[in-house]
Amino acid sequence: MNEKDVRYLETLLARCSLNDQQAFAELYQCVSKKLNGIAYRIINNIESANEVLQEAFVQIWNNAGEFRPEQAEPMTWMASIVRYRAYDRLRLEKRRIEGAQFQTILDSLDEIETRASDGLKNAELDQQLSLCLSSLEVKQRKSVLLAYYYGFSREEIADKFETPINTVKSWLRRGIERLQLCLAN
After folding, report:
1. What is the 3-state secondary structure (H, E, C) of 153-171?
2. pTM of the predicted model, to two decimals?
3. pLDDT tens per residue, range 137-182
4. Between the CA of residue 136 and those of 55, 129, 171, what are the distances in Å?
5. Residue 79 and residue 34: Cα distance in Å, rounded?
6. Are 167 and 174 in contact (CB under 8 A)?
7. Residue 66: predicted pLDDT
8. b/e per residue, 149-185, with b = 16+ CB within 10 A?
């Protein structure tokens, strides 16, 4: 991008910070295709990329006053907003998939615990960890495995156990403390 184009985008962003809707429309016309391409390359889905672009432009509009030309070029600043939004979208979609798989995992957690224990029994430390896991209360053990072995959020665990999130946090905190004490011995 040449210096003239950079200055033009800086001017449009400055006008957007003053709630100039015409400047926002011009900015969109100038950069939306390139920014949408960035979103698409990350997400690899046209509809999701379009949604990310829309969310990014709302953020650009709301935060145009925070743009600092001495810190970054306009395109770099806007592209970073799009990238962060795209990665957020990927995480959200991954959570939706994981949420759908959550009940299947929960339904077969005893089998999963056995497989996890079998997989852990390769070395002495792994055997100790398996032994320490088995010493936890059932809900603590299941919560620890779901959170730290499978990556489920505290909110997801609380929803599936129909338990307040603070209870799940307590199970996890106490479970990890007990594991640490057990492994230290």
Report:
1. CHHHHHHHHCCCHHHHHHH
2. 0.53
3. 888 888 888 877 777 788 888 888 889 999 999 998 898 888 888 8
4. 44, 11, 10
5. 9
6. no
7. 94
8. ebebebebbbebbeeeeeebeebbeebbebbeebeee
In degrees rounded to 5, what are phi and psi of residue 70?
-75, -15
Radius of gyration of the chain (CA): 24
Q: Which residues of the chain have pLDDT under 70?
A: 94-126
Six-digit token string for 181: 């004490």
Q: List Cα–Cα distances, 31 to 48, 82, 86, 122, in angstroms.
A: 18, 11, 16, 54
Encoding tokens for residue 116? 């996890």
Nearest-angstrom CA–CA distance, 87 and 84: 5
Place of tokens 């959020």: 153
**What gap in Å lies between CA 117 and CA 131, rounded to an integer?**
9
19 dihedral zone (left: phi>0; alpha: psi -120 to 50; beta): left
